[in-house]
Design a protein that fits this description.
Blueprint (H helix, E strand, L loop, with lengths): L1 H22 L41 H27 L1 H23 L4 H15 L1 H10 L17 H17 L5 H26 L17 H32 L3 E3 L3 E5 H24 L11 H4 L1 H28 L14 H23 L1 E2 L2 E2 L1 H4 L2
Antiparallel strand pairs: 1-2, 3-4
Helix pairs in contact: 2-3, 3-4, 3-7, 4-6, 4-7, 6-7, 7-8, 7-12, 8-9, 8-11, 8-12, 9-11, 11-12
Amino acid sequence: MKETGGLERSMKKKNDKAEVIESVTIDVDTIAINSDDAELPERKGFFSKREKNSHRHLEKNQLSSSAKKSMRTRIISAIVGLAIVVPAIFLGDWIYFAVITFAMIIACYEILGCTNKRTFITVIVYFLFVASIAYWPLFKQMLQDGAFISKIDYYYQQIVLPILVTIVGTFFAFFLTVIYKDFTVHDACFMIAMAFLVGFGFQCLFYLRYFPITQFSDASVVAWKFTFSNTVKPSMLLVFVIISTFMTDTGAYFVGVFFGKNKMNERISPKKTWEGFVGGVVISFILSSVIGIISTYFGCPLFGETYNLSNNWYLILILSLLVPLFATLGDFVFSSIKRYWGIKDYGKLIPGHGGVLDRLDSILFSVIVASIFVFMLTKISDGKFDWAGFLI
């Protein structure tokens, strides 16, 4: 009985297969005999015209409730931050110096938080390293004069990357690897690199605010003299760079949120898109150029009275393009650092934005390129560039 049952099941399977095969009908006329007879679909090249019905045009994205809430928080935090920073910029002098110094202290604390090697000694060593680079023009001028004057603008008339501080700071950074077993050479190299970037960036923040005051004939280097010539005029260069950077970030954010489709680099920044990048650069370039030209037209030239609009208006356009490009680069560099260390934000001081470095990432790169650009202009004499004066 078992053999008979197995035979019946085997015959049933064969019959089922036969029925399936019989049910398949083949139209021989539709088969191409060779590849030449086959009608292949037309391939689309990169520059070929697309069909009108293709969905490659910009479409507005739908915002979720969390995205709307995040946007509101970012806007409120930005308004509060501007209410603190803007008066400090225009008042200048030691008021601006104190605000920027406070931001620098927080930035140093946040940098060490990346490595999770934050101790009292490492914080002190790192802050002294960064502060020495940021304050070096002040120290250098005081040593040359042998005295101290109350006007801080006097000291920041050039940008300097000191060799002595570099050597001493590098020595102490590697010395930490000896006294702390968990502080590795990798941590020391990261500390040194970020000290150069953050320290020089904050030095440039001082330079862009304090240098222009010497470029106006009606301005005077007198402490606490809050006049139009001493406050508004010298502030326009730094305000220009900050607005250009802010519009790059803001324009890229809103264009990316509403129209972003194509990711730039998901490995570093998953939310940034090419649409946002182009939108941010274009918006920043247009608005920055307009602000720079209007400011110069109404008696507040960005580069002082030495470089006027009628002869060198193109300088405003060049700087208006350089700033958003380097601001985007700075954003990516600091984002890559966060991805490497596996952190979302550098800190939690600013709701919706993260820490100080989350807001200053783009600005640090912007002020560095702007300071180098302006400092190079000061080394042009009689139509010739003074390389010896630039490479100090």
